[in-house]
Every structure is written in C-alpha cells, then in structure tokens.
Write a structure and sequence with these properties.
alpha+beta; 88 residues
C-alpha cells in the first residue's frame, strides 16, 4: 500500500491544505484516510484534503511526500484522476 501526499500549499477556509491520494484504488485511499482520522467529507472526487496540522500524521502513518505535479501524474497514470467537470 502506497499513499502519497503533497505539501500543504493549497489555501482554503483560512488554512493550508495537502492532497492525499492512492495510485492503487479509492478503496485503499478511504481505508488509509479513515485510519488517520480524515472524515469522509474531506474526500473530493479522487483525493482527500488534509489540513496542514494533520500533514505530519499522514507522513508518520506511511504517506509518501511528493510534489503536487508528481502527485497528479501518479494519479493520472493509475487511471484514478477525476478532474472537475468530468463524470466519475
């Protein structure tokens, strides 16, 4: 199981956010996210939004730190990318 997380550089709702993804399946992603306390509402199409104060928790639990462009590339290569405006 390999999960990936990008740096918390995405602003929103008064904080900075990271994206947590799997390059295997959404089921794997949901299981990992639940194990680190991400609520289901944090899932958005193909990733979980993780607030900056939870970033280290995700890394300690095994998420691999990678850049945002690499994260999108891995998600796309795995066939799991679901951009806004496209059907699931």
């Amino acid at each position: 199981m390999t999960l990936y997380i990008d740096p918390p550089t995405w602003p929103g709702h008064g904080r900075m956010w990271s994206h947590l993804v799997s390059d295997v399946s959404h089921e794997e992603l949901h299981t990992f996210a639940a194990s680190i306390g991400c609520p289901p509402r944090a899932f958005e199409r193909d990733h979980y939004d993780v607030p900056s104060h939870r970033y280290d928790d995700a890394v300690r639990a095994g998420a691999v730190e990678i850049g945002s462009k690499e994260l999108v590339r891995r998600l796309t290569d795995a066939g799991l990318r679901r951009p806004k405006g496209r059907p699931a």
